[in-house]
Structures
1.
Amino acid sequence: MRPAWMRHLRHRIGIRGEFLLALALLDVCQCVRLCWPSPDTAASPTSQFLSSLLPLPVWGAAWGVVGVLCLVQAFQCRDGWAFAAASSLKVSWALANGAAWAWGVPQAWWSVIIWLAFARVVHILAKVPDQPAVSSTSTGGAP
């Protein structure tokens, strides 16, 4: 059973807020990955190409800003900027990977597909009206 504060928080932020929290986690982790890349990450052909466009910490900062925006707006009723920024960043990342693929980076096409699909999911969920999560006590079901 979930603690009462978790149930209250989930009810307070709703489905859209929950999704924005997941985006915040993803985006902040991507920020850390790019700002402080491991030797393997920095040596990858895709990272080499992307760092020729902009230094990896600059890419990371963009992910971090969007992650923080998603975190903040997860708790607000007006969350459109977070959804727009998250979707736009993922499309931009897909386009940058598309450029890498066009310049001969092997397997960059896969990142294009993944990030465009994910951007579409963000865009779709941005159009869903928020509904408070249904509590387990009102349905009689398990948490």
Note: Helices lie at 4-35, 39-43, 45-53, 56-73, 80-102, 108-126, 136-139.
2.
Amino acid sequence: MLYVSRRRGEEYLAAYAGEHWRDQPVALPGEDGYLVAPLLVRHFTLTPPT
């Protein structure tokens, strides 16, 4: 499963996911029951073309 989200900046992401957004995944209520392994956090940044 892959979640993709787009935020306007880190402050918006932190407001949504909490202060530990860089290293702790955000799980939906009850989501753990569907997982076969713990969630992993990976961040990617999109650099606009120049």
Note: The first helix runs from residue 10 to 17.
3.
Amino acid sequence: MEDLINEISTKSTIVEIDDQHRAVLDFGQHSAAKGYLTWRELTHLLDYQSHRPLRHWRRFDEEQVVEATRAAFSRRDEPAKALAHLHALPGLAVPAASAVLAWTDPDHYGAIDQHAWRTLHRFGLVQSCAPGAGLRQQDFVTFTDICRTVSTRLDRPAHWVDLWLDTRARMENGRWH
């Protein structure tokens, strides 16, 4: 963990939050302030995250979305349960569900993805899913614990830590996706 914290401390400028990302964060936090998201709000966040066709999320109905997001947002201190409520929506994978949590509560959650996971693997902080494919709910709990530990030590939001991990992996691979 110390190696990761030291590297983040010395290379913190690799994270840039552009205007579009800032707008999504502002939208997510503002929308979640009422304690839940509507279908339209959720699909707006998901569209930014994955750009999958809207048909993938037409299976959600308004009541499901409100119920799932309300339950998830009430579990801030229980990442596994928060994620499980969102992941229960049809077709909503762990990375997408974690992104919703990160955009609505960036101080406490990071968005897990294969790039950030590979960085943690390279630092020896995680053992499973070396390439970052097939991330599970338990992986999200581990990821959240690491992001929260680093964020506390460096006085940064957990979502900023996930952005750093993601950026570091992309830079290491020599390409941007």
Note: The mean pLDDT is 91.
